[in-house]
Automatic annotation (TrEMBL):
UniProt source species: Rubrivivax rivuli
Keyword vocabulary terms for this entry: Amino-acid biosynthesis, FAD, Flavoprotein, Methionine biosynthesis, NAD, Oxidoreductase
Record-linked Gene3D superfamilies: 3.20.20.220
UniProt EC number: 1.5.1.54
Keyword NAD in annotation: yes
Gene name of the encoded protein: metF
Name of the protein this chain belongs to: Methylenetetrahydrofolate reductase
């Protein structure tokens, strides 16, 4: 692929490791990924706050290595007081960027708490903390799986952005037209903020197909059949996965995407290979 393209900002997403060994390994991954000078690294937050301490510890590790770290924060099931306390802890650590989400409670858990939607959390952060946070929200180019009506989902997304989000990161997808259509639709609703594609390198095809089926994400038939045909030929899965994802990124960037956010699953090699393909 050509190397004559203007670079776009890159960011990487991690989940908080469960063990000290995992934390050490993640530091090496951060080090490796820093070669492409990412804008920030984000760290997910377990459903209902299950990883609260681990998310904080991971964010601190990344910040201590001199990089911008953005914790994810979900609000469903939380009280205003608990969110206030978490924001205070991050603020004291010098963190000023976060990914604000509704989240999903584990099934069987009652929906208690003082927030219903991500828009409520975003409005609360702005109201309590002012303008000095960079707030990212989640976007779904193939629509949120719990929303039956596309038009409603677009309107809810626009309302969430108007509540005070600075930019959005999308759910992963493989169909660039879904992204471009989503961006066109929300622009018509007055959303001007950058909408950064979330990209899933294909680490393990079976697992990604499972995530996609759960979250209502289309895997094109030509990709699915070819991947399924490779069976356990890991080298072919890897090479084809890089080709498909790098081509997707190229189309997105050429079509105006303002950046790329990689779902790394705490691994560096595939994301780096894709960045290399992109020049
Ligand atoms: P919302 O924007 O609140 O939307 C949720 C649903 O409610 C949608 O169907 C929407 O159409 C509907 N809705 C919104 N407003 C209204 C309204 N006023 N009336 C009626 N319906 C409404 N999950 C985690 O647990 N931890 C993470 O770290 C995490 N990180 C993520 C990062 C990214 C980039 C993305 C894309 C998703 C992430 N998720 C994470 C998953 C996310 O929490 C789930 O998809 C969740 O179901 C929705 O969260 P949201 O912030 O998009 O919700």
């Amino acid at each position: 692929m050509s190397t004559e393209h203007k670079p776009v900002p890159i960011s990487f997403e991690f989940f908080p490791p469960n063990t000290p060994v995992g934390s050490d390994k993640l530091k090496t991954v951060v080090q490796d990924l820093s070669a492409v000078k990412p804008e920030f690294f984000s760290v997910t937050y377990g459903a209902g706050g299950a990883t609260r301490e681990k998310t904080l510890a991971t964010v601190k590790d990344i910040a201590a290595m001199g990089h911008e770290a953005a914790p994810h924060l979900s609000c469903v099931g939380s009280t205003r007081e608990s969110i206030r306390e978490i924001l205070g802890t991050y603020r004291a650590q010098g963190i000023r960027r976060l990914v604000a989400l509704r989240g999903d409670l584990p099934s069987g858990t009652a929906v208690a708490g003082e927030f219903r939607y991500a828009a409520d959390l975003i409005a609360f952060i702005r109201q309590e903390q002012g303008a000095d946070w960079h707030i990212e929200a989640a976007a779904y180019p193939e629509y949120h799986p719990q929303q039956r009506y596309a038009k409603k989902d677009l309107e809810h997304f626009a309302a969430k952005m108007k509540a005070g989000a600075d930019s959005a990161i999308t759910q992963f997808f493989f169909n660039p037209d879904a992204y471009f259509h989503f961006v066109d639709e929300v622009r018509k609703l007055g959303v001007t903020a950058p909408i950064v594609p979330g990209i899933m390198p294909i680490h393990n095809y079976a697992k990604i197909a499972q995530f996609a089926a759960r979250d209502g994400i289309e895997i094109p038939r030509w990709v699915a059949l070819k991947m399924e045909g490779y069976l356990d030929d890991a080298a072919s899965v890897r090479a084809f996965g890089i080709e498909v994802v790098a081509r997707l990124c190229r189309r997105l960037i050429d079509g105006g995407a303002p950046g790329i956010h990689f779902y790394t699953l705490n691994q560096s090699a595939l994301s780096l290979d894709i960045c290399k393909q992109l020049g």
